[in-house]
Design a protein that fits this description.
Structural class: mainly beta
Shape: globular
Strand content: 25-35%
Radius of gyration: 13 Å
Strand order of the largest sheet: 1-2-3-4
Number of helices: 0
Length: about 60
């Protein structure tokens, strides 16, 4: 019998409201994913279709 794996939890910090409208393509299904939070200076996105969390790979300038 196979064991069920736990989902990996990515701890994210709150994202300023100015960046909540960011959208990126999901690397798994290709659909649009909305901004969920931030990890260091990278925006973390969550895909509603497949529930995947991912980060953007290129640099963004945050002006708080």
């Amino acid at each position: 019998m196979s064991k069920r794996r736990r989902k990996a939890e990515i701890k994210v910090l709150p994202l300023p409201n100015a960046y909540m409208s960011e959208i990126a393509a999901c690397p798994v299904c290709g659909k649009d994913a909305e901004a969920f939070g931030r990890r260091a200076l990278q925006i973390v996105f969550r895909c509603k279709a497949c529930k995947v969390l991912f980060k953007r790979t290129h640099d963004l300038s945050f002006d708080f």
